[in-house]
């Protein structure tokens, strides 16, 4: 289908996943990196014509001669890491040794210098934290490091006067995964900070401290003709300045945050030349303001989830973009997803079990539904080295979080074992996980145990990732609404239960209704008595299905509430159940969930079968005991 060959500078884990995507489209890929066992080279067989060697290039992706050697073998060049020789790529392009380089070498060079990147984005009106150059704007190999260092120290003090403390001091180049950053907490730390970031041998800049609420990332694919498409915004959670987990889609009360994040990311990527996937990292500030942190001109760690969770992965879309193919859909194909990184927990030369401990979460994940393990084929282990990742998908945020927690617990335990030097228990090894899975599969008790009801606790009524919201105007309605909670608990549906008054807390009601979809809710059960405005007013503020429960009052026996709920005007639908029957409201909500998640339909059918069996049992007893049975009951 595609006759052109793609050359990639870099053959690490990103290149490996790019090669996987290319292989499905029969696209030939040639790689430039050191060694024959780099992660991407391991899975990309490319013998030369003589059969005596490989078409891949062994060498550094900053070596001009090696880049030219790769260019001689391919039609299009791209990158899996931005720390390449952009000047040589431009020369290769100018000499027409290849048809194209994506993204453009000028884009790569611009993004390599994070200060220049800030200036570029700022000049185009994109939101950033305040920043300032530190010391000389140009630091070269011939610059006097001692002179530069002193100038940078003075500039740090000036930045502190302008921005206050703490402030973030950053290296302009070679900064990633938390490297190249220094938190300056006082003027006295200026010299220490400059020394830690190159001692005058690298250009620096300072940023005003951004006390963000969460970190957000958006992957954007850009075609050679300038079309841009954004993937869903996701939340990234970092440990030690390295991405630990990613949660998709972004769940925040204000639905506008996700939309604005995608818009800002698309606007930013549209300012760069060339095609491919870009990773845009942002801070969400108090009040919902978004600030761009930095941009990567390549597939990104925060986009790994797209392999299992979206209609077209970031790697396939990168390939499509640089080859001029139609861009693929960036939409989620599952309701919820997460990704967790696997980083080296110890050095192989110091701990014989370093690899086994590091891969313990991977072993455990093999028995977690919805989990897909990606290992990168790296030999040995170093602490902090990226060794793999695990993607987890599911029908709800709650389900994904529960599955993720299993893997995360294994990681935490393995981390502690690596710190103490203790031996890895068998249950955290592949053999142990396999034995346990086999034992569960053969146990006749396994099915019953899985569906056992949990002990009642306050958490049952305020799940952090609810699918159903149960609301009422007053705690006096609680006795009527509790049966709905018990039914949802019986079906293992995550829910929240709270008070929202249409009359006494109208602002809270509006916020609750409008934020519900963005928070992951899929149905709302609203109990109301008397005037019973709550179900209708909530339905007027949200696109989610709303089920009203008429609450019996002291005057009109709930008929007034029922009439109020069922008399909604055209265009504002509200379902209603019988007076005081929140049980049916919960059952209807579960059926609504079942339209997208067959597991709830299966549970509903089992529930209906139980009711039928119960009635058949009564019929049998009535036939055996006669009318006397009814009297006794």
UniProtKB/TrEMBL annotation:
Pathway: Purine metabolism; IMP biosynthesis via de novo pathway; 5-amino-1-(5-phospho-D-ribosyl)imidazole-4-carboxylate from 5-amino-1-(5-phospho-D-ribosyl)imidazole (carboxylase route): step 1/1. Keywords: ATP-binding, Decarboxylase, Lyase, Nucleotide-binding, Purine biosynthesis. It catalyses: 5-amino-1-(5-phospho-D-ribosyl)imidazole-4-carboxylate + H(+) = 5-amino-1-(5-phospho-beta-D-ribosyl)imidazole + CO2. InterPro entries: Ade2_fungi/plant (IPR016301), ATP-grasp (IPR011761), ATP-grasp_carboxylate-amine (IPR003135), ATP_grasp_subdomain_1 (IPR013815), PreATP-grasp_dom_sf (IPR016185), PurE_ClassI (IPR033747), PurE_dom (IPR000031), PurK (IPR005875). Residues 118-323 form the ATP-grasp domain. Its EC number is 4.1.1.21. One of its GO terms (biological process) is 'de novo' IMP biosynthetic process. SMART domains: AIRC. One of its GO terms (molecular function) is ATP binding. The keyword Signal does not apply. Gene3D superfamilies: 3.40.50.1970, 3.40.50.20, ATP-grasp fold, A domain (3.30.1490.20), ATP-grasp fold, B domain (3.30.470.20). Pfam families: AIRC (PF00731), ATP-grasp (PF02222), PurK_C (PF17769), RS_preATP-grasp-like (PF22660). SUPFAM superfamilies: Glutathione synthetase ATP-binding domain-like, N5-CAIR mutase (phosphoribosylaminoimidazole carboxylase, PurE), PreATP-grasp domain, Rudiment single hybrid motif. The keyword ATP-binding applies. It comes from the Eukaryota. In the C-terminal section; belongs to the AIR carboxylase family. Class I subfamily. This is Phosphoribosylaminoimidazole carboxylase. It comes from Pseudozyma flocculosa.
